Amino acid sequence: MFAFRMSREAGSGPFLLMGLRAQRALCSPxxxxxxxxxxxxxxxxxxxAGAAMLxxxxxxxxxxxxxxxxxxxxxxxLGVPPVITPLTRAITRFRLLTALVMLxxxxxxxxxxxxxxxxxxxxxxxxxxxxxxxxxxxxxxxVAAALATGAVRMAHGRxxxxxxxxxxxxxxxxxxxxxxxxxxxxxxxxxxTVVAGGRGYEVTGAGCDQGExxxxxxxxxxxxxxxxxxCLQAGLSCNDARVVEREGVASAVGDPTERxxxxxxxxxxxxxxxxxxxxxxxxxxxxxxxxxxxxxxDEPAMVYAKGAVERVLYxxxxxxxxxxxxxxxxxREILDTARWLTRRGLRVLAFASAPAGxxxxxxxxxxxxxxxxxxxxxxxxxxxxxxxxxxRGCEAAGVRVKIITGDDAVTARSSAAWVGLSQEALSGAQxxxxxxxxxxxxxxxxxxxxxxxxxERRLVQVLRSHHHVVAVIDxxxxxxxxxxxxxGVGTCLSDEGADVVLPGGTFAAAAAGIAEGRAAxxxxxxxxxxxxxxxxxxxxxxxxxxxxxxxxxxxxxxxWLYLATTMGLMIALNAELRTRxxxxxxxxxxxxxxxxxxxxxxxxxxxxxLAVQACAVSxxxxxxxxxxxxxxxxxxxxxxxVVLARSSAAxxxxxxxxxxxxxxxRAVVALLAMVALQPALVxxxxxxxxxxxxxxxxxxxxxxxxxxxxACGIIAVLTELVRRGTPPARRxxxxxx
Length: 737
What we know:
- Helices cover 52% and strands 14% of the residues.
- The chain is α/β, with parallel strands linked by helices.
- The strands form four sheets. Strands 3, 4, 5, 6, 9, 10, 11, 12, 13, 14 and 15 form an eleven-stranded mixed β-sheet that branches. An eight-stranded mixed β-sheet has the order 1-21-20-19-2-16-18-17, sandwiched between helices.
- β5 and β6 form a beta hairpin.
- α20 runs antiparallel to α24 (700-725) and α21 runs antiparallel to α22 (665-683).
- The protein starts with a helix and ends in a 12-residue tail after the last helix.
């Protein structure tokens, strides 16, 4: 701090700033890697092998450093923190474990060289190459780039990712809990049927300024059925929505259900509401709303109530007839009518009213007078375009969709049927019963009706306790279960608690986000597998040396394989970061993380195929009167072509098929340059000295190309067999283990 002040006083601030930047650069991990490689190269006692080590490590460091800079520049406009997620932390731990294992292997190699009397220079070169090639220190950068690609693609699709870990967890999601209104259905409702005074009325039109109320096709006006008038007046009065005028156009503002009640009252010509005195708001436990209004003229102060049919009926003592006279209340008949309407997929609300008590100024559930039942209003929420396809896509991909709704179970079952879900439903009371809390019932149920906040939280906790990765999608207001979920998805930009925000989004947008997360995880797994193949090959080479076998390639040859792998991966990842095309459609089953056992099996199979191919090609070359150096060059070239093809396949292929163009031109040029370097490895003298290769005759090239193509085909078939042979699990453990 004192030096900083002295520098500022002396006018040397820019020089000090330059010194600080240089200090940060010198203290960065890539510099440590280069220094360590230089020490290993000097220890190897082989001048050309040491030069090859330094060249390969420097080129790899430059490419990985450029990828890290690209990732930072890509996510900076999104305003998200650096890409540090449970998966990247697990990869970092795996890198440390690998380094420790390689230290043990290096010690074993040195001991074996001492016991068997191997040449000291050769042993030191093998150990140095082993330590450089086998430690996968670039894996966190690869995973971070894949997750950053998913975040960028989500942002391009108008999905805001506030935390990079959300990309990972969206891709690992196995259960999606969603609301119905605004996500699966349009954020508006229309009253289609009114039952009052023992008669059923049809409501036509979709707005306040159009449509009418009819009975058997005949338009009905005010005064023809006093129970109908009172029912619509109750919906108009017990209502928090309001009509506002903007630029000469009147529109309703508020909850979709309450806007629908305003529209139905307007169609009968009702517009006046007496001033409100008190309100008893709707709650998930109470299931109804009530308002107290001032007297108007000769009319007394009134209490209006609306809510769930069975709850409002419990508060009523009689019913209003069409002539305006109170009569006997037949609760069974009203419930049967409500069930008939809900089976048609309509949401049904009941309405009641009563004169307020003398001097009543407050409204509580206990202070409510005995109410008079007025009627029912049934409304329809149209399904959003794309909701059915989104739900089917999630179900096909192994992601279970569950609807949390405040409607009763019958209405909720109809809502599930609209979007193609099964109609198994659980209520809050059933969920509270331990007999319904097991994994079988929760897996089978798709609808959860009328859950209280604590029941919603318990639902998410139980799902997570059975190793599900749960995403909860809410509308304008955050639900109680979102705080317990792995991923919270909101639809409002002001929602600071959401991990992912879909401004004005729908369930289809959330499903697209899950597909992008799956694409990011799949890319991270594929790239990680490609990066680990050369490490497994190097380990097999060390094992062959320890067993006294004659390997098909020399240790220094692994440097070229490592360089081809790393540069191919960096080129493909840079191209993906610049790509804005949507992700592939989610594949069936779950997405397995990069370090999952099935991924490790794939890596071992690929390495085994490459080892067998290298041995076979080298043995065949020896039968064609080739020298040991030429045979090893043939094996190295054919293997490096396979490794390069696998590393760069992501540029042209996706797990869903061939990637649609246009392709990144810079990436294509870079890959062509890498392919062009393969003949240089064979015929340029500098490469011959650096990587211990020898020039080949032209007849060897058809063998090299054919062997590489055959190995790629065998690898593709074996990989597909492994994936199909692994049963898709119905539950998935979180990635960070």
